[in-house]
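Sorry to interrupt, but I need a hand with the structure work. It will help me judge whether the discrete encoding reads sensibly. Write everything out right here, beneath this request:
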Amino acid sequence: MNRIYQTTISSKASLIGVGLHSGNLSKINLYPSKEDSGIIFKRIDLTKNNIVKANFSKVSSARLCTTLENDHGVKVSTVEHLLAALYIADIDNVLVEIDNEEVPIMDGSAKNFLEVFNNLEIKNLNKKRKYLKVLERVELTDGARKISIEPNDFTFEVDFQLNYKNKIIGKQRNKVNFQIDDLKDITDSRTFCLYEDIEKIKKNGLAKGGTLDNAIVVDDYKILNKEGLRNNKEFVNHKILDLAGDFLLSGHRVIGKIKCYQGGHQLTNIFLRKLFKEKSSTKLIELENIFISNKNNTDQTRKIAVNA
């Protein structure tokens, strides 16, 4: 259900784990934050110029992960799963202290982050939350890759399709409504790669911390992870998770319907930059009251107050 007021966490939360690409051990501490502060990363291994704001305009690289960089060249990478967990946990404002350049990958999904957040009280703040409501269709085509967004009355929906030559991944497709649907399959879905790509990725200095404990590896017609998949659409579900995290870099929760074909971090960031250039296509709104229909109750009414 969409909230009317902004939120933060009620107390400190901590996680520690290895960075997927750096291979370095990384610890993050999350702290409550005030209204309109958004999500802020603070590199505590540095003594100055160490603040990095979570915003699409600060993305300096979207190759295999989303990397944020401030005006002084200070970076924080692989932020997408943490951001997706913050989105799903309904947390708007938080300070993330990190002692390294990369957010820990944990198990390759948002599961571990959400387990921590679910044990915290989510605190309402005094100012209303502003939503980014889509007013008209915007689309972007980049070769075979496509992404579009169109108006949707009250919810954030994603229709995502993959197109891999690999027979196991294939042309998986899923549609998810983030306000109505059970999101467990989305939050639990892990990052993945093809076995044939691992050597090339590592030659480029990436995936130093990658193991079968934090990623699905697909080799031709088999999955190398002994436990197999967590759900039948884990590949496309992870892409939807990534998209949710990357879309939170807009600074707001989006009310709109997305369709994405063969997308990823880079396409999403290019699309967000286009969306914000086309100012007439979106509007910031506040909610007076909202009731979202779900599987258990299909007769709820909805009210919305629009304020620029």
In short: Residues 82 and 219 are 28 Å apart (CA to CA).
